[in-house]
């Protein structure tokens, strides 16, 4: 239910984070204001910036810096952690190996997932079975990324409590069997500068990542300062830029939250075009439901949308695998 928004709102979530585990948090004036802002942003754009999130700016920058250092390594070194089906679709992919709707994307990346042990989810979990494969260089890559993942998971859970309240349900509605044991995905992405395609034997394409929606509940985007490349499509089909704002994350909602809200909240199409001559790093953290969760529209959201159920249910892991198996060429 997006609108013709022209910009993406900025929300200070610190009042929510201060009260996130208070059973009476919804009665707090500061929390209520954050909840109202989340409701408006999720209804009108499906995207918003957050500040006051509590994750140290030094770590946010270090995550990007160490990603830059990795992508600067020789190709042969990066290939030591190459993504394939045998790695559970974890690891490195070269520019042009990620595909959106059949078109190669002009980015390279490392893909990471929450560990899936053998037999954990039966046949549903087999494609993503395994542990992440981290590069040995730069040093401390694994340590820094795992610290970052833990903090993003904690922050996302707290923001999702505010989003639950914004839909008129309990703050913990999205926990338990839905997302009490959340899956997560981390994509560490490098977008070559605009001149790259002219000097390399690569697909001639200026789109860093084609138009798509995200798969789960909530995404936290940590993007390089000084380069505007992320674009979000409004109702009229205009592409609205999401420029980096220092100290913030860009957040957006995914397909599973769209289903839960029965379409009240939209998983908005977005894309990346890096027209800058500079190499751009973006680290995207995806907070997801329980891997085997059956996601259905909430009754209260069906009531708010005229009593009509607009979406069939979906098993999150099945939805994720259907995307992953068509995302790569290697």
Automatic annotation (TrEMBL):
Subcellular location: Cytoplasm, Cytosol
GO molecular function, one term: 2-oxoglutarate-dependent dioxygenase activity
Domain of life, source organism: Eukaryota
Keywords: Cytoplasm, Dioxygenase, Iron, Metal-binding, Oxidoreductase
Annotated Gene Ontology cellular component terms: cytosol
InterPro entries attached to this UniProt entry: DIOX_N (IPR026992), IPNS-like_FE2OG_OXY (IPR044861), IPNS-like_sf (IPR027443), Iron_ascorbate_oxido_reductase (IPR050231), Oxoglu/Fe-dep_dioxygenase_dom (IPR005123)
GO biological process terms held by the UniProt record: coumarin biosynthetic process; response to molecule of fungal origin
One Pfam family, short name: DIOX_N
Domain Fe2OG dioxygenase intervals: 181-289
Catalysed conversion reaction: L-homoarginine + 2-oxoglutarate + O2 = 6-hydroxy-L-homoarginine + succinate + CO2
Family: Belongs to the iron/ascorbate-dependent oxidoreductase family.
Protein name per Swiss-Prot or TrEMBL: Fe2OG dioxygenase domain-containing protein
Lineage: Eukaryota, Viridiplantae, Streptophyta, Embryophyta, Tracheophyta
